Amino acid sequence: MTFHHPRATPVRRRTPEQGALLEAAEVFIRRFAAEEPGAADPRRRLAEVAAEVAVSGTYEHTPAELAYGARVAWRNSARCIGRLYWNNLTVRDLRHLSHPDDIAAHCFEHLRIATNNGRIRPVISVFAPDRPGRPAPRLLGEQLVRYADDPRSAERTALARQLGWKGGYGAFEVLPLMVQTAPGRRPEMYEVPEDAVLEVPLTHPRYPGIAALGLRWYAVPAVSDMSLEIGGITYPAAPFNGWYMGTEIGSRNLGDTDRYNLLPVIAALLGLDTRSERTLWRDQALVELNLAVLHSFEQAGVTMADHHTESTRFLTHIERESRHGRRVPTDWSWIVPPLSGSATAVFHRYYDPPDPDLRPAFLHREPSPEPPGVCPYHP
Ligand code: ARG
User: What separation in Å is there between the alpha carbon of 240 and the centre of ligand 1?
Assistant: First the structure.
């Protein structure tokens, strides 16, 4: 007599990747349940996640997990002085999008939502995550808006030209958005629509010569070259923005010698004696340039923080976090502003050290390996 065994479900062996993913998921789900009042029972949710991982090798965050994860990634950013408002991040759940046309269109929509007529809103747009063996598209630029003549963008400008972009020979031209759908693939390129980019022309309350230089900067710093990592899932296309602190533009972008290097120009305009360092012409030029940036954004009605106010807010943030029993990992060298450091409140103390393993986090992406001659892209 033949004897039919009921079909046994095969015992799937967990791959090391799945094990690591589940471990990361567990830490995240437990943290989420502990911090979010409305969260489901973490044991039930973790069983669900484990089942999903066993079948597909990955799992999907709920919208609430995604929003919480993105906000905590901001909270965990040791280099960010603006973290007081981490819980006010607008999270756009665009995980269903992976076509480059859709990604580009929604990056431009991101800029419009964030700009909000000058009342800048912190926003993150989260596109499709990486899946096992199937990396998701990424944005090749450092930010959604960058200028082609900024020395920091030299390689991206070269890449855009290689892809056929005809612009980028004038001052302050916005680079096209470049979306790469797979490693080694030729990126798709999109001109950023004018109505998506608010810019502020620089003027000075006392030196009209500064306006005559024709300087400008854009309103929304939207970082696009970092991955968002939550509970073991990587979102490589997840551009995010806050508002500017004046020194980022006035000291670093316009002042650094390997950026726009404008201190000698400003000094000449102010008639400063640049023959000796001891006249502190650089310092004076820096102050006036920073003043011009703050003044211009104010005049244009565009949100911008000054470094003194933002320093005080950061210390408020630390206090508030400690009331919740949380440490604030902090990189002193990034937090102290690049102007009058010791005159700001954040200079004079020590902080909880950054923890490279802390998650959720924004992480710098590894450069994707490109076949020679196709796309000479190194961030
Ligand atoms: N420092 C960068 C820049 O000058 C922007 C980094 C993010 N800054 C911010 N305020 N959220 O463009």
Answer: 10
- Residue with CA nearest ligand 1 atom 1: 248
Q: Which residues are catalytic?
A: 80, 83, 243, 248
Give the total number of structural domains in the chain: 1
Pocket test for ligand 1, best of 223, 253, 309, 313 (most atoms within 8 A of CB): 223
* 3-state secondary structure (DSSP) of residue 35: helix
Which CATH number belongs to the domain containing residue 314 in this structure? 3.90.440.10
- Tell me the pLDDT of the chain (379 aa) as tens digits: 556 666 666 667 899 999 999 999 999 999 999 999 888 899 999 999 999 999 999 999 999 999 999 999 999 999 999 999 999 999 999 999 999 999 999 999 999 999 999 999 999 999 999 999 999 999 999 999 999 999 999 999 999 999 999 999 999 999 999 999 999 999 999 999 999 999 999 999 999 999 999 999 999 999 999 999 999 999 999 999 999 999 999 999 999 999 999 999 999 999 999 999 999 999 999 999 999 999 999 999 999 999 999 999 999 999 999 999 999 999 999 999 999 999 999 999 999 999 999 999 999 987 654 443 444 444 3
Determine whether the shortest distance from the Cβ of 245 to ligand 1 is under 6 A.
yes
Domain that holds residue 236: 60-336
**Residue 266 falls inside a structural domain:** yes
Residue 132 belongs to a domain? yes
Question: Which of the listed residues 80, 244, 258, 331 should we mutate to test ligand 1's pocket, taking the one with most ligand atoms within 8 A of CB?
Answer: 244
Task: Calculate how far, in angstroms, residue 49's C-alpha sits from the geometric centre of ligand 1.
Answer: 35
Task: Please check whether residue 26 lies inside any domain of the structure.
Answer: no
Position 40 in a domain: no
Q: Which helix (H) or strand (E) holds 308?
A: helix 307-323
Strand arrangement of the beta sheet that strand 233-235 belongs to: 233-235, 226-230, 361-364
DSSP letter string over 318-366? Answer: HHHHHHTT---B--HHHHS-SSSGGGSGGGGS--BPP-TT-SSEEEEPP
